[in-house]
Amino acid sequence: MSTLLCPSEIRSTAELKQIQRVMGAALMRPLTADDKMQTAWSDGRDMNLVVDEFMKPNDRMTAFARLEIYNKQYWFRLLDCLYDDYPGLRALLGQKRFHALSQAYITKYPSVSFTMRNLGGKLEQFIREEPKLTGAKQAMAIDVARYEWAQVLAFDEARSKPVSVDDLLGVNPDQLHLRLQPYLVLLDLDYAVDAYFTAVRKHEFGMRSESSNAKDGASRHATSKRVALPKKEEIWLAVHRHDNELYILRIEREAWHERQVKALQAEIDALRAKIEGKTT
Amino acid sequence: MPANPFNGQTDYGIGIGLRVPHYRHILAKKPVVDWFEIISENFMVDGGRPLEILDSILEQYRVVQHGVSMYFGSADPLDREHLKKIKRLVKRTNTPWLSDHLCWGSVDGRYTHDLLPMPYTMAVAKHTAEKIKQASDFLEVPICVENVSSYAEYHQSNMTEWEFLSEVVERADCGILLDVNNIYVSSENHGFDPLEYVRYVPHHRVGQIHIAGHTRYDEVILDTHDHPVPDPVWRVYEEAIKLCGNTATLLEWDDSIPSFDEVHDEALKANRFLHEHAPLPI
Description:
The structure holds two protein chains of two kinds. Chain A has two domains: 1-74, no CATH class; 86-279, no CATH class. Chain A is 54% helix and 9% strand. Chain A has helices at residues 13-28, 47-52, 63-85, 87-93, 95-108, 123-129, 138-156, 165-168, 193-211, 217-226, 253-279, and strands at residues 185-191, 232-242, 245-251. By secondary structure, chain B is α/β, with parallel strands linked by helices. Chain B is 40% helix and 18% strand. In chain B, helix 6 crosses helix 8. The mean pLDDT of chain B is 96. At the A-B interface, helix 1 and helix 3 of A face helix 2, strand 5, strand 6 and helix 4 of B.
């Protein structure tokens, strides 16, 4: 006979935690292919027996069916978030493959933030770790995922106070730590993702104007078929915001490097010169 | 009661939830609205457009913060860094009170992003009340906890939901955000009398009321916030107003959101009940 997973009474925070661990694990278990709750627990026992340990049935629904509502809500909510935040990756992989990737990603890296804004934070890493999920499109998928995550950061990351000469007066230049604005992301990509993304947006806009706001599988599938894949091209991008509008600029390779490293060093040198000029 | 310690002694009237599809209309037309409720988490960011929008709204309107992620009912302790983020926003909005839910939603640092029901026992009530007190002390603003809608119940519960809510708020000495739609949804899903719930809770602690619509299926009602407020929910609201007085009321409409005017008109229907049923001040 299997041991029970849940305490029969809750008289302490430890017992509360135990029941929340079991319920949390239950509703985070991936849905079946037809969007149902799995019928077996992770150790193979009947899911009904596990759910019956803590959930009551009512006169219309079994305990299993009642918990299944939460299981579905969890997955639909998180999958919808990735669906909305990664239109380019969705178009690249197609609806079915994107769904499989998203489900595998959330299973491996469940949300660890109070906000779903951060849900895609490890998606690039996951695509590198699980090459089978993107197959021949892995390199493209990595670039598209980086590009879309950069937009999340540029949208609402902090704007640090720019450094002025006066801020540096009296500061030992050797101890200076200058960095780029948090909302500025520099990307070195192997594919022309910026042009590809423009095509995706245009196509999605066209789809919406033709078929209202209804989201159905057919229209999403069509989107993935009709947008041409990103072209192989080494590009360097600055993704940032100005007056709270997002901007994506192509920059020259040299400028990219300069902004990454050399610009900072040049800035330090220039500031040093100004400080020395002011203090002599 | 209209103004009490749990809503910062305010008398805010009828508000609506601030939602993205209405930003342009609100900022351009500046409609007359008593107050807006914001989802705190949408503005707990470090920069960019969300804070610009919020600051523009704050120039014109009174704003109250409503959270979805403090999870007072989670067994895990409160996250101090999270509280610091909320406090930064409290200073920005000057919210006279803030609300969050009587629920759990994360365990061992993993977030479900849902408002999950709790097992109703005395030990859980004590644990939950202690977390609310800690949050209120840190945030230095009154807290109202909201009853959630639910689709499931625990074998381990040995109290009713209204007994549990009352126990928690008395122990925490905090307010209640009484969501009459959630009471109705849960009453249909679990088979209890929604008016018994409303009559039991400590009315002097009700700082705010939520109204909303829902979706009825064959076996369950889901709390979808995508319809006008249905008559049975208005009846629960009427009873709440009779017992609690002219309380700050907020309409939630979160999905299939119609025009701003349609949402606002639906919220203002609450006036009929406030005028007819709220006890007159002595």
